[in-house]
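**Sequence, C-alpha cells**
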Amino acid sequence: MQAPHPSAPTHIPKDRALHWILGLPFDAVSLSEAVQIVRNAARQRTPLFISTPNLNFLIASQKDPAFRDSVIHSDLSLADGMPILWLAKLLKVPIRERVAGSTLFEQLRYSPLQPEDRPLRVYFFGGPDGVAEKAANAINQDRTSMQCVGYCAPGFGNLDDISTPALLARINASEADFVVVSLGAQKGQAWIERNRPQLAAPIISHLGAVVNFVAGNVQRAPVWMQRVGLEWVWRIKEEPSLWKRYFNDGVDLLHITITQVIPAALARPRSQRQNDKHE
C-alpha cells in the first residue's frame, strides 16, 4: 500500500475510511453505504464527485498523472473491479466489497426512496448518438426512484468543444441532481475536473457503460460472472472491440503485481505478516 499522493486533498473528512493502492484512493464503503451517501448529497445539495476506479483506471493512472489526480480529487472513490479487491487482499488493505458504478446506479434507480426523498434527477452527458436518448426514455417509462431530466451527446470534439457555456447552461437548466458522464474514462474525468465548478448538479460521475446498459444496447454480465471476476469475458462478447484493452490491462496487471504489489506485500514487517496468518 502506498502513502497518499502529494496532491491528495487536505480537506478529507476525518471519518472517511480511505485506503490507498498504487497511488489511488479507495473508500472502504459497502454498496448500501454508497447509495446513502449519494442520496444524502442529493437531499442536502452537497457536492459529490464520484470516481469508480477499476483495473483500467489503475493502469492508466500509472502513466497519466492528471488522470490519477482526478481520482485523488474525488469525494467518493469506489473499488469498481474484482482485480482491485485481489490487489487489496495481497496488500492487506481492508476493502472487502466491490462497488461497481453500474451496480450503484441500478440501486439508486430501483431501491425504494425514503419519505423525505424525491426521485433522483439524472442527466446523461455523452455516449454514442441516440443512446442517451434511448436510456432517458427507458428510465422515464418506468416508475422507479429515478427520473431522467435531460441528455446530450456532444460528439467527439476536444475538451474545449464539449465544455462551452451553452452546453453547461443546458445541463444546469435541467435542474439535475446527478450528471452521468460517458466520454471515455480519461476524457470523462478531465471533463469533470474542468467543468465541475460551473455545474449546479451536486453529484457527478463518469459511468461510461451505464448509458449503454440502461439503453439496452449492451447487456450486463450475469451476477455470478461479476462476483468471480469474469465480467470482462462477457463484455468482450457484447463489445468485441474491448478485447485489446482487456488484454493490455491484463499484461500490465501481471507486470505491476510482480514488480510492485508482491514486493510491497513482502516488505511488511515479519511480525505483521505473522499476525495476518492468524486473522
User: Anything to note?
Assistant: The beta strands are 18-21, 24-27, 48-51, 76-77, 120-126, 146-152, 178-182, 203-206.
